[in-house]
């Protein structure tokens, strides 16, 4: 009996030692591989850059995108929004997105034309009847082709944001016809197509830094400029140029742009979530833009400014038709499709 008890006690001790060694070995392996544990819990963090400040419609859209992505991935993916140009100017950020240093950015399509030339078609003057027409184009198959067309440059467009329509304003008179524009000195961006647009309408284009426009109108160096409702208000240009003509000559849509390097690292399920979240966030941004435009117009009218709405844009469209040959010669079929979209 004593011998049996001795054997039993020895077995219990051996089993206990083996169990302890196994637990200790597992604990040692875990402590030696903390990265493995952190991979299971730490979220993927993506950075999204925007040059506009908090409260601006595009930044509101960016933050809605971030919220939707985090919610729908149960926190596995977080999008950090950097407004106010914290990560650099638009051109610098696009270059970093291309090489994966920054994951996402909100950008105008203007600087993207060097990567996809046919994007310039979307900026042709008077190509859209109105905002609804533009988004019927952009939210359809053509718009999707444009978004995907940046893949050769290692980037991917996710959705379309609204950036309003640019119209003329000046300090001299109401503009109701092309004839009314003749001889006016109009500030334009340093862009060949904008220079040609203003020339075609009979005015004198004057390239100038945006920050100089207020004083230039005030002192008579130029007669006016062109921009959307919100900018006309926030820059205080309405104070020195009281005539605003809603001709909506140019609409330049914007997008959330993503690095293809970042996108390709995600699972198909997460890629789908990212794309759907961006498109839903774009609808929020468009609503915010519409609110900003309405508020700006209300304040400008209340200030006593003269707002002129064209009865027809036909005369203006005819005057700039040569620009379609110059900038859209290789895309005539595409231009026809856009114009005929109902």
TrEMBL record:
GO BP term, pick one: transmembrane transport
CDD domains linked: PBP2_TRAP_SBP_like_3
Highest taxon above the source species: Bacteria
Entry GO MF terms: carbohydrate binding
Keyword Nucleotide-binding annotated: no
Keyword Signal: yes
SUPFAM superfamilies: Periplasmic binding protein-like II
Pfam families associated with the record: DctP
InterPro entries: DctP_fam, TRAP_DctP, TRAP_DctP_sf
GO CC term, one of those recorded: outer membrane-bounded periplasmic space
Matches recorded under PROSITE patterns: PROKAR_LIPOPROTEIN (PS51257)
Keywords: Receptor, Signal
Record's protein name: Tripartite ATP-independent transporter solute receptor, DctP family
Originating organism: Paramaledivibacter caminithermalis (strain DSM 15212 / CIP 107654 / DViRD3)
